[in-house]
Amino acid sequence: MVSSSSETSGVVSAGRYRTGDLQAVGFPRVAEGGDTTEAIKELFSWVESFVVDSINWYTREKVSKARWSRFLRISAVLSFALGTVTPVVTVGMGWSRQAIWGYGIIGIGACCVAVDRVCGFSSSWMRYVSTAISLNRQLVMFQTSWPRIEAKLAHQPSSEDFSEALQELVSFVDVTSLLVENETMAWVSEFQNHVVQLESGSISALPQRSQQ
After folding, report:
1. Going by C-beta distance under 8 Å and a sequence separation of 6 or more, which residues neighbour residue 164?
2. Minimal CA–CA distance to 56: which of 122, 129, 137, 132?
3. Is the pLDDT of residue 156 over 50?
């Protein structure tokens, strides 16, 4: 994965996620009448930082999602296990009246699963990991293919060479932006689905009915 620090990556951060959410980023100003090759390199650096910011955000945000997911899922497993054993143990020890506590403990486990589903901790964790991996793959492919473009621009480049370089940058931004858009739309769809389920009181809580 790309380092979470823009300084260590050598890329100037575009600042898309400084406030914790997606922010608009101004397009870099390229001086008119300047060296076209240098302008292309400046655009490359901006595009690169544009994607690095996205990768770093997903890498950073998945940490809290993973912690909550593990906590709630482990709590649910322990609650279901303890709730299942409680009636057997209490009845075996002659404490029949306390056997009902097993249902309460199972209910706590069901609540943990329901909270995870409604808040989307597990699903967000998986989406963030997969999106970060996909973005990183696209970035590495872009970085490794760019020297070929630079080589063409280094020796008497033609207008077709500049057009090709710009098209490579545009295509890269389009592909990576689409990955982020797809992840966001998946979150919107999931959130809307959970709102409908909450309003109808049909949130699945038991492990055998939960869907990841």
Report:
1. 149, 152
2. 132
3. yes
Other beta carbons less than 10 A from residue 32's beta carbon:
6
Helices (H) and strands (E) in the chain, counts: 5, 0
pTM of structure: 0.73
The pair of three-digit structure tokens given for residue 30, joined into one six-digit string: 């390229």
If you compute the radius of gyration of the chain from its CA atoms, what whole number of angstroms results? 25
Tokens of 204: 């699945």
Residue 88 CA to residue 68 CA, distance in Å, equals: 31
Burial class, 61, CB count within 10 angstroms (exposed 0-12 / middle 13-18 / buried 19+): middle
In angstroms, the CA 167 to CA 162 distance is 9
Query: How is residue 136 annotated by DSSP?
Result: H
Can you tell me the distance from the alpha carbon of 65 to that of 120, in angstroms, rounded to the nearest whole number?
8
In one-letter notation, the amino acid at residue 80 is: F
DSSP label of 23:
-
Give tens-digit pLDDT for 6-42. 433 344 445 555 556 666 666 666 655 557 788 888 8
Q: What is the DSSP string of 63-108?
A: HHHHHHHHHHHHHHHHHHHHHHHHHHHHHHTT-GGGGGHHHHHHHH
- Alpha carbon distance, N-terminus to C-terminus of the chain: 25
